[in-house]
Amino acid sequence: MHKKVTNELNFWHRIYVPEVIRGIWITSVHFFTNLGIHILHVFGMAKKHKGMVTFQYPEDPRPPAIRLRARHRLMKRANGTTRCVACMMCETICPAHCIYIVAEEDPDPRIEKRPKVFDINLGLCVVCGYCVEACPEDAIRMDTYIVETSSYSRDGMIITLEDLMNHDNQDMYPRH
Amino acid sequence: MEKVTITLNGQQIETTTDKTVLQTALDNGIHIPHYCYHPGLSIAGNCRMCLVEIEGIPKLQISCNTFCRDGMVVHSTNDRVRKAVRQVLEFLLINHPLDCPVCDQAGECWLQIYYMTVGQYDSRFTGNKVIKHKKATPIGKWVMLDQERCITCSRCVRFTREISKTNEMVIFNRGDHCEINTYPGRELENRYSANIMDICPVGALTCRDFRFKCRVWYLESADSICPSCARGCNIVIHHNPHRPHKRNGARVMRLKPRYNPEVNKWWLCDDGRYNYRFIDQGRLRHCSVLSPTGREQLYLDEGLRRLAELLRQTPPRQTLLLLSAHSSNEEAFAARRLFDQSLGCLCKLPDEGVFTGDQDDFLIREDKHPNTNGVLRIFGWQTSDLLPMADLLDFVAQKNIKVLLVNRHELSADILGQLDQLECRLVYLGTNVTPAAEAAYLAVPLATFAEKEGTFTNCDGRVQKFSPAFLALGDAAPEWEIYSRLAQHLGLEQAFPSAAEVFEQLRTGNPFFQKLEFHEIGAFGELGAP
């Protein structure tokens, strides 16, 4: 059962002080419990209780989960060309319409088709990972673990074929 | 030929003895899978996909080459037939490269369609696929051939033998080494060559022009009429509405023939099929006027106000409208109502491109306009009333024409210079930027056939309707709308709300169109009164 949420204040809320005291109580319980756990950890006790930690984000980022979906990359064949054959499955399935591909003739007659333009607009991308699932060639992956994306302009949010291929084709699982 | 009744999947169907079981089924909305059968070609019976069970015959029969007999009992969906068809499809796909991601046919490929409806097996083939020596190679100006995807249904071979009668294609070798190709040293060179990639049920023959341009599931379609000659072949405009700004504004991706038993059957000539670039490229988008500082862009209503002013200042008999046979019936009627009847201007249809083109005995006509017949009938003219383009300047000088309105015609630099000397103001109404549009005192943008609704009257007097695929670019509008707004600026009571309304007024006064109703003209068009 959901409790009905209302903005109306009753008498208990209107006199103010009890609610403030209740808030301070909740904060204090969390703080002292956590403090107690960390003190016990120092003495090698209560190891199965995990204490809360603050990550010092930009200097010391938290290790990413293995399944994290982050910025895309296009995988390469042994000869360095892209695995992508511009079948446009990812472009078709993309719910945010952030992928834009133009196909062209590949000089290798066994491959036939390759992307001439492969733009991903990270400003539009909803990081759903459908493109990775749809790809029949395992060409697009979202395992670069690059989550910081910023730009001074909207155009700067668009990454091109060159950016997508700018990696050494290794597995990128985090080592920690 | 006699009338008989057959039982197809428990359903009593009346048919005739000159029809095959497959034709009867297709005519009655029952789909039997088939590759090699095409209603426009002779029966080959080599794909074996259309197998059906006929009671009294121990083996399964191909329905495409079994003619109906009275009392025949046919099953096309029972387990025995389904199993056989699935195995035929399995054989056809044994050497198929499964390169759907790079194949332009993907999405409209009958191998994919039948795999999803009757196939859906796991591959049991453990041997090596027979690899044909080359990937896609061009075999003509418009057609790309990929041997590996071919199922040798021989539709293309029969097309070049029976329809184009040029005999370029043939099947070489036997068994699983079978391959289609052109004869050594020959190219696919005929004016209907692109039809073979329409009838190819798989991705073996694909279009060089459409190659890698767009995936077919992005396409939207609109029924239309080919504007490239007086035959008026029925077509479908396939256009891609997604993100045209990324493609330099290209909206039309390709034109495809549409079945009309009275006009073009299933076919379309290459000239008509690839004449679509003018719809998106080099378009006249806005009204512009020649000012001392160069061309100045105007809002459409401001441009039409200036045109109305110009028409008011000039005596009507010194104003000449050069009509275009690219206008629809409705547009020609609106032009006649305003310029001929209300204002009393001179109207002429030039003979440019009417008699000079080439023609053959199949589809291509020498008149390269879609609606010469319609314009002539609306104005009540004969072909002898056409104004020879060579006599234009003489006509202008003789009648002392001061305002020349040109609808879409190309005028050479020579004519443009001489018009200047005769002090004749040129007003250009057109769809594309041409030398005439750049030299004109006033240029007014018009919508192309793909952006408007209307009817064309073809060379046989068949009135055929076309519908808009997308909105017009910029300020461009159909002529009847331009003329309605112009009439308002001239203070005349003439406002047409829609093409249907114009047609309604056209048919009340014209015996040829009298029996036709705009909304009742069907997909195949209707003949006007003889």
Radius of gyration of chain B (Å): 28 Å
Mean pLDDT of chain B: 93
Oligomer: heterodimer
Major sheet size, sense and barrel closure of chain A: 3 strands, antiparallel
**Which CATH class of the largest domain in chain A is shown?**
Alpha Beta
Globular, elongated, flat, extended or rod-shaped: what is the shape of chain B? elongated
Order of helices and strands of chain A: HHEHEEHEEH
* N→C terminal distance of chain B: 32 Å
Sequence stretches where pLDDT stays below 50 over 5 or more residues of chain B: none
- The total of helices of chain A stands at 5
Number of domains of chain A: 2
Span of the ends, CA to CA of chain A: 43 Å
Structural class of chain B: alpha+beta
Task: Please identify the structural class of chain A as seen in this structure.
Answer: alpha+beta
List how many beta strands of chain A DSSP finds. Answer: 5
Q: For the report, how would you describe the main beta sheet of chain B?
A: 7 strands, mixed
The greatest interface here is:
A-B, 18 and 16 residues
CATH architecture of the largest domain in chain A: 2-Layer Sandwich
